[in-house]
């Protein structure tokens, strides 16, 4: 599986037939009258007769004298309406007939976002059944970096494909293969430590979590670039999570194919970084496991010793993501990167706190926070900062061991998980994302299913974060 897997080859690229493109006029509610007055009477009368008001997401085809399409109109609503969503023209694209369109009347500051949304609206997951994605294609608007937008769209599509693929076809071996394909595509190197070798090379918690599965645990280590500041990305690759011996109820297991959403998002971001040839040294670490039930599964009450020597009391085998990340973060910290970022579908508490549309993150460095939040606003990839709240450190210290993987009481579940991970990201600048990785309701450019969260914001912020 590569960044173009399962995709209509034209769906995530711009059309190049500008000469024959249908003009698509983007019209806000407050600009309709002005636009209509500048048109010939037959067009203005048609628009009035059709009741087109410029409402957000509305479309109208204007015929020519031969029964063809002379132009199309896309409603852009009001400022207040647009603030309640993003990628508005992707919603319009879904209502247009097959053809090639060229935008007119879109403010330049919106062009990049809307063009990306249009491409993302062409995504469909058709590995198992034929889908019908929107067939309206777009000519790249003037003034945008079309190649960059296509790369970002491909990275997001890779993330979606990986998350949407069920665990039967996306186990640890398959995730390793996807990483290998991406490494090959970009000339990166990759090493993999599997099975019992994890114990020999001191990754005991990755081994403990994944040893009960038929598809054994592994640590995937990808490297790219030989100059510039260093960035290490760590992605949770739990390909399916039964909960282990603390078995999840059936209703809670239905979406567990997405529990490798952190790894999928990291790989999508890695594709963007490598394809854009950012001048950095990139490392990607993915602990790939399945949390299964068998006679050799790790147990509640066990005490594990992590790579960095800290002991961890297991109070819930369903809090396994932080265990595999801990060993990977320890390895990452040993390399002393300039910045280390983990991404994981780690806690239900984060989803409850901010819902499925925001990417919650943790960071202590105010300069990184400023860079990320400015970037997130520019690229319509919303994030929300949660605190590394030091007074809660005591909640993850059980007394019998250095750390508790699942503090009792249910309070501050996302924060205590982030504090747990920070104990392993020592002596390095660290950020952590506790994402959901799934869009429960279809929206413009974001169909129901797997979705990247925070990757585009990070890509936009990296030059400022790393001093490029």
TrEMBL record:
Keywords: Aminopeptidase, Hydrolase, Manganese, Protease. SUPFAM superfamilies: Zn-dependent exopeptidases. GO terms for molecular function: aminopeptidase activity. Pfam families: Peptidase_M17, Peptidase_M17_N_1. Residues 316-323 form the Cytosol aminopeptidase domain. PANTHER family: LEUCINE AMINOPEPTIDASE-RELATED, PEPTIDASE B. Belongs to the peptidase M17 family. This is Leucyl aminopeptidase family protein.
């Amino acid at each position: 599986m590569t960044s173009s897997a399962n995709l209509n080859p034209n769906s995530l690229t711009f059309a190049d037939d500008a000469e024959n493109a249908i003009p698509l006029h983007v019209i806000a509610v407050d600009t309709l009258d002005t636009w209509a007055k500048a048109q010939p009477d037959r067009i203005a009368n048609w628009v009035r007769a059709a009741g087109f008001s410029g409402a957000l997401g509305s479309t109208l085809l204007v015929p020519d004298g031969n029964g063809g399409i002379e132009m199309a109109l896309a409603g852009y609503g009001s400022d207040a309406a647009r603030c309640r969503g993003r990628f508005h023209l992707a919603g319009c694209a879904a209502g247009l007939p097959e053809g090639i369109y060229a935008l007119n009347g879109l403010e330049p500051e919106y062009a990049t976002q809307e063009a990306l949304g249009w491409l993302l609206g062409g995504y469909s997951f058709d590995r198992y059944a034929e889908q019908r994605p929107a067939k309206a294609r777009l000519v790249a608007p003037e003034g945008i970096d079309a190649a960059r937008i296509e790369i970002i769209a491909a990275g997001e599509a890779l993330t979606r494909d990986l998350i949407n693929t069920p665990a039967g076809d996306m186990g640890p071996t398959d995730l390793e293969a996807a990483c290998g394909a991406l490494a090959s595509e970009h000339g990166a190197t990759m090493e993999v430590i599997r099975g019992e070798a994890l114990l020999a090379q001191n990754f005991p918690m990755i081994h403990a979590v994944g040893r009960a599965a038929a598809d054994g645990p592994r640590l995937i280590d990808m490297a790219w670039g030989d100059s510039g500041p260093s960035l290490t990305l760590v992605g949770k690759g739990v390909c399916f999570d039964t909960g282990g011996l603390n078995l999840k109820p059936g209703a809670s297991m239905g979406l567990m194919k997405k529990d490798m959403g952190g790894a999928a998002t990291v790989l999508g971001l890695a594709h963007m970084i490598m394809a854009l040839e950012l001048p950095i040294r990139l490392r990607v670490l993915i602990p790939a496991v399945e949390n299964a039930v068998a006679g050799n599964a790790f147990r509640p009450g066990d005490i594990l010793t992590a790579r960095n020597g800290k002991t961890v009391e297991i109070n819930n085998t369903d809090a396994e993501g932080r265990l595999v990340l801990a060993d990977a973060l320890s390895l990452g910290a040993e390399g002393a990167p300039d910045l280390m970022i983990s991404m994981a579908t780690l806690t239900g508490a984060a989803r409850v706190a901010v819902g499925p549309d925001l990417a919650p993150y943790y960071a202590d460095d105010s300069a990184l926070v400023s860079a990320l939040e400015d970037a997130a606003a520019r690229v319509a990839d919303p994030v929300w900062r949660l605190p590394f709240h030091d007074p809660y450190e005591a909640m993850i210290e059980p007394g019998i061991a250095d750390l508790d993987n699942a503090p009792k009481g249910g309070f501050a579940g996302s924060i205590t998980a982030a504090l747990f991970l920070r104990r392993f990201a020592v002596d390095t600048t660290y950020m952590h994302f506790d994402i959901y990785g799934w869009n429960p309701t279809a929206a413009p450019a974001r169909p129901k299913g797997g979705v990247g969260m925070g990757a585009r914001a990070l890509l936009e912020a990296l030059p400022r974060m790393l001093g490029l």
